[in-house]
Structures are given as structure tokens and as C-alpha cells.
Design brief:
Low-confidence stretches: none
Strand content: 15-25%
Oligomer: single chain
Largest sheet: 9 strands, parallel
Distance between the termini: 84 Å
Radius of gyration: 27 Å
Number of strands: 21
Helix content: under 10%
Order of helices and strands: EEEEEEEEEEEEEEHEEHEEEEE
Length: 296
């Protein structure tokens, strides 16, 4: 264990490379500005509740670290927390000054950066993200969200974007029509997205010329349009609620029909599509009178 409770004037602290620390309590370090605690195989928790002056944090390569709470770090500008094989959650709600975030190679299935409006560089690659909303991150210049499970990206508001790496996802729709395509140049990779057919762009002719399959930027079946006009719905032809007009799957496909009303006699808890077969009790449900007794 390490007791830092009396080190109230600590401004910078390093404790990296194979220490045996299982936890770090920095709740008394209100003046701490820099913390490097990476590559500690036993580190499980970092308590930063009182470290509200923290500007820089590197806590990467800590295999047992499962969560990070940075709600009190309003001055934090740089967060490096990549390659934590157990890291599943990061709370960034209070990190208003954050401008550089590397949380790649973790186990994140959600990432909320909606309150981090000063964010310029985001690397969240090699996680398990299915969604990523950067519509509030207007200062964003560099985004790497490759090797996830993201299905759509809307970047129309990210007018400062100069690089985008989003290959190896489950992308079906990308809106890159933000008026800044020419500044992205070849800093783009949207390849290996098997269901990505259309990308909305500023100038179709320019995109065709510079963002090519042969350069490894897009897949051979992907094309550009000024408006891809996504239609959300179930795109699986074997599903009960298949929508032939949909070109972007919204996760609503249903494969079991039956009665979906929980008060019906034949309610089927596994059904997701009602087939109008529900039946209900009708008439008097009390047992018939078989005798009558009259007392004094």
C-alpha cells in the first residue's frame, strides 16, 4: 500500500512499471497536476475524487483496472488510458477541458463524450463500441474508431475533422458531408465495412478521384453521394418485419410471431411480433352454484 494522505503539496506523481500497488488513493491531492501510473499489473482502482487540479493522466497498460471516474477532473486535458484489458467504463461527464483522449484497446461497449466539447483528438479504436456520437465535439480534428462494431457515423457537424479512421466496423451509413472533405485528404480509412454501400460527401467527383478503393480508403462496393438518404428498418429478408425499402438496419428485426399481450391467455414471452392470435377470458368466470344453505 502507499499512503499519500500527508503529501498535500504534491504536483506530479509517477508510479509506473510493475509496482505491486492494487489501489491508488489520491483524494487528498488537490494540487496534483500530473499522474503517470501505467504498466502496473496489479492496479485495480484509482480514486481521484479530490484531485481536481489534475491536468494529465496516463493510466495505460493496467490489466486489472476496470473503471475510471473522472467526473471531478474539470481541468484534465490529456487522458491516456489505452491497453487496459479489463477497462469497461469511463465516466467523462465532468472532464470539460479534455482535448486529447486515447482509450484504445480496452473493453468499452459505450463511450459518452457529449460533454467534452473541447475534445480535439479521440482514439477509441479496438473496443466493442456499437455507437459513437461526436455531434457535440465540434473541435474534433482527429478520430480513430476503427476495429469496433459501430453501425453508423454522422460527422456532418465536425467541420474541423482532418483525419478519420473507421475501418473494420459494422458501418452501414456514414455522413461525411461537413464542408471540410478537402482538408481530410488521404487521412481517411473506411475500408472493411461489409455493409457500407454509400457515403455522403461534399463533392462526389472529388471523392471519387481521391478516396479510392485502390488506395485502401474504401471497399470496392462503396460509392459516394451528396445525399445517401438512409431509410431505417429491418433489412433481413427472413425476418417477419422485413422492410424492403430500408437500407440501414436499426436492430428491430423480429423472427418470432405470436401473442404479445401479457394479459392474454396465450401470451408468448418470446414473441416480438403480434400475429393477432391473442385470446382472452370471456363471460362469467365464477364456478357454478351447486348448493344453497340457509341458516337461522
Amino acid at each position: 500500500s502507499l499512503d499519500l494522505s500527508t503529501n498535500l503539496n504534491l504536483h506530479s506523481f509517477d508510479c509506473f512499471y510493475n509496482n505491486q500497488l492494487s489501489s491508488l488513493d489520491l483524494t487528498k491531492q488537490s494540487k496534483l497536476e500530473r499522474l503517470s501510473c501505467y504498466n502496473n499489473s496489479s492496479l485495480q482502482t484509482i480514486d481521484l475524487y479530490g484531485a481536481d487540479s489534475l491536468n494529465y493522466l496516463n493510466c495505460s497498460y493496467n490489466n486489472q483496472l476496470s473503471s475510471l471516474d473522472l467526473t471531478k477532473q474539470s481541468k484534465l486535458e490529456i487522458l491516456i488510458c489505452n491497453n487496459n484489458s479489463s477497462l469497461q467504463t469511463i465516466n467523462l461527464d465532468g472532464a470539460d477541458s479534455l482535448n486529447q483522449l486515447n482509450c484504445s484497446f480496452n473493453q468499452l461497449d459505450t463511450l459518452d463524450v457529449s460533454n467534452n466539447t473541447n475534445l480535439k483528438s479521440l482514439n477509441c479504436s479496438n473496443n466493442q463500441l456499437t455507437k459513437l456520437d461526436v455531434s457535440n465535439n465540434l473541435a474534433l480534428t482527429n478520430l480513430d474508431c476503427s476495429n469496433n462494431q459501430i453501425t453508423d457515423l454522422d460527422l456532418q457537424h465536425n467541420t474541423n475533422l482532418i483525419s478519420l479512421y473507421a475501418g473494420y466496423n459494422q458501418l452501414q451509413y456514414v455522413n461525411l458531408k461537413n464542408g471540410n472533405n478537402i482538408n481530410i485528404g488521404i487521412g481517411l480509412n473506411l475500408s472493411n465495412n461489409m455493409q457500407l454501400n454509400c457515403i455522403s460527401v461534399d463533392d462526389v467527383g472529388w471523392s471519387v478521384a481521391y478516396w479510392t478503393f485502390h488506395a485502401g480508403i474504401i471497399d470496392s462496393w462503396t460509392y459516394f453521394s451528396s445525399n445517401c438518404n438512409p431509410i431505417f428498418g429491418c433489412t433481413d429478408s427472413i425476418a417477419i418485419n422485413f422492410d424492403s425499402s430500408a437500407n440501414l438496419d436499426n436492430g428491430t428485426c423480429c423472427y418470432i410471431s405470436g401473442c404479445t399481450d401479457s394479459i392474454a391467455l396465450n401470451f408468448d414471452p418470446n414473441a416480438c411480433y403480434d400475429d393477432n392470435s391473442c385470446s382472452y377470458v370471456t363471460g362469467c368466470t365464477s364456478p357454478a352454484i351447486t348448493g344453497l344453505g340457509v341458516s337461522n
